Amino acid sequence: MCRLFTLALLAAICSISLAAKVLVLQDDPLIRSTHSRYFRELHSQGHTVTIKSVTDSNLKLRDWDDWIYDKLVIFAPSAPDMGGDIDDDAVLEFIESGHDVVIAASSQLSDPMRKLCESIGVDMEGKGTAVVDHVDHVLGTHGHTTVLADGFSNSDAILGGIGSRAPVLYQGVAGSMSPESTLGTVILSARDTAFSTVPGKASLETPSLAGGHAALVVGIQARNGARVVVSGSLDLFSNKFFSAKPVTSQGERLESTGNAKFCAEVTKWAFHERGVLRVSNVHHNKAGLTEQPDWYRITDDLEFALDIHEFSGGSWKPYRADDVQVEFIMLDPYQRITMKHNNEGHYFTSFKVPDTYGVYKFVVSYHRAGYTALDVVKRVSVRPFRHNEFERFLTAAYPYYASVLSTMAAFFIFSLVFLYHK
């Protein structure tokens, strides 16, 4: 397991250090110009961007066993189908192979695109629905469907502290995830007064999604480390929303929106440019020694340490957290200890080996929203005392020693009296 983790980590490091080949699928040729600022941002990050029509008959993601592209961006919400060799199964296989995908939807989301989102783990609202806010909306839009959203994820790994920035302009459909999902996180949610409905259609039914339950942008991190971002709005990435100075329903004019920064940060996370952790220098030893043994003796004092670094801003930096734990497990954890760190990425702890021998594992299983998972396993044996390692005389046993000696003395005296006294 350690070997597989190391190989996956090396693959992730290699993918980080190289500029990615990005394929953009569009269902409207105007997207190349209406979303040009977003594409320029991808270029500025060193990526090679190829834009093609989603219905191109020559589309393909792989050439035999070699993947042609590293990342996939699907800006084709209304596409009835995808051309060439690309379909839902091909996209899912692309994700399962460790590649990243960004998907943008809209109120006109087609059934194939909705099915693709469902396969990834995000349930989008029905066709024709939109996020509506009659309280906090932008003036001059039909049906109050252009809204402001600032329900940002509190994970700095995803947004890099964007939570204090300008609200995001949004026009599109809402989505949701299963509450039992452990792989997804809501990156952007609607304000409390927003809800999902069909614009202009009166309804007495309770909205299926409202307030913070209406997910606008969702991030999925697969178990193999691949990342997928699903946005319910294609306009979220548009030049128009990047440069807009909207007037709110309260009459306040915003100097700018947070769309450009938000989309840039979300894409960096999706493309593994932030929130990537790596482990190195995993070491355990007896207290006071440096050699790493294959076994320990019961009740030994041992030390365990490792280094954790985070890829951010184009380089590896020490990762600082106070919730990294190590477990010493034989079927069940015998020890579970929160590790200390020196603010330079070095984590360490010490503890006493349990008084039960067997095969144990050091386990560090670190899973936090926005970060790649860390799963480190080291196996060691714990043996009992050998016959010549026990203490010859135990202080706690002195009363028992005394009782045995007194019994022997009493028996000796009794024997003398019984045999020789008349």
Automatic annotation (TrEMBL):
<keyword id="KW-0812">Transmembrane</keyword>
<keyword id="KW-0472">Membrane</keyword>
<feature type="transmembrane region" description="Helical">
    <location>
        <begin position="398"/>
        <end position="420"/>
    </location>
</feature>
<comment type="subunit">
    <text>Component of the oligosaccharyltransferase (OST) complex.</text>
</comment>
<dbReference type="Pfam" id="PF03345">
    <property type="entry name" value="OST48_N"/>
</dbReference>
<comment type="similarity">
    <text>Belongs to the DDOST 48 kDa subunit family.</text>
</comment>
<feature type="signal peptide">
    <location>
        <begin position="1"/>
        <end position="19"/>
    </location>
</feature>
<feature type="domain" description="OST48 middle">
    <location>
        <begin position="284"/>
        <end position="422"/>
    </location>
</feature>
<comment type="pathway">
    <text>Protein modification; protein glycosylation.</text>
</comment>
<keyword id="KW-1133">Transmembrane helix</keyword>
<dbReference type="Pfam" id="PF23358">
    <property type="entry name" value="OST48_MD"/>
</dbReference>
<protein>
    <recommendedName>
        <fullName>Dolichyl-diphosphooligosaccharide--protein glycosyltransferase 48 kDa subunit</fullName>
    </recommendedName>
</protein>
<comment type="function">
    <text>Subunit of the oligosaccharyl transferase (OST) complex that catalyzes the initial transfer of a defined glycan (Glc(3)Man(9)GlcNAc(2) in eukaryotes) from the lipid carrier dolichol-pyrophosphate to an asparagine residue within an Asn-X-Ser/Thr consensus motif in nascent polypeptide chains, the first step in protein N-glycosylation. N-glycosylation occurs cotranslationally and the complex associates with the Sec61 complex at the channel-forming translocon complex that mediates protein translocation across the endoplasmic reticulum (ER).</text>
</comment>
<dbReference type="InterPro" id="IPR055459">
    <property type="entry name" value="OST48_MD"/>
</dbReference>
<dbReference type="InterPro" id="IPR055457">
    <property type="entry name" value="OST48_N"/>
</dbReference>
<feature type="domain" description="OST48 N-terminal">
    <location>
        <begin position="21"/>
        <end position="270"/>
    </location>
</feature>
<dbReference type="InterPro" id="IPR005013">
    <property type="entry name" value="DDOST_48_kDa_subunit"/>
</dbReference>
<keyword id="KW-0256">Endoplasmic reticulum</keyword>
<keyword id="KW-0732">Signal</keyword>
